[in-house]
């Protein structure tokens, strides 16, 4: 009968599930656990907000109404502001942003970065499908104003503009970070991503077609989707032997900038 060698790990000594999840060196260990936890923690406030909207929680309703009416009165007195918000909300609507994301995917495919292109596509598609589905499930009506400055069809929560702006900004940011270095262009890229998300959401409330909580819900859902898909992608990287990255610092695939077929 053969006996286990000195380096053979007996079944009784296999690391526990908990230890594997907290192992910083394991490809599916601590990095994936932290990323998955971050995505979950973003989903918690989104779920809570959705429940408050579904239950028509009076304090939230009053806050939404106050913000909506204040911005509506400002819009009625400032037609130039309305024109600017209309232009912004059309330029950065979901369909144009999806077109930009599609061009990015095509560019990545031409560079041989098939898995990175798949990550970008998955992020946009998953988030893009969740938005309309949640609108139907929640069934919240849009604001009703006596003298509206803009109109929009469909249900209100979450804001599709806010959601898709967050998805597109996250995808573009995490793909392009390796190309801008460590200098001023990195700051410019971050500022552009934040402005895209914030001003697009603001434009929907300023035009009176969404409540503030609709926009907040779109932002939270977008961040959760980007965090979840990024966690899955970075876990795959570690599993295949590629070096670990901090996505918000390095991007999701920094090696693609020098070796296009590496991801």
From TrEMBL:
Keyword Glycoprotein: no
Transmembrane segments: 28-54, 91-109, 116-138, 158-180, 187-207, 219-236
Cited SMART domains: acidPPc
Domain Phosphatidic acid phosphatase type 2/haloperoxidase: start-end pairs: 114-230
Keyword field: Membrane, Transmembrane, Transmembrane helix
Protein name, per record: PA-phosphatase
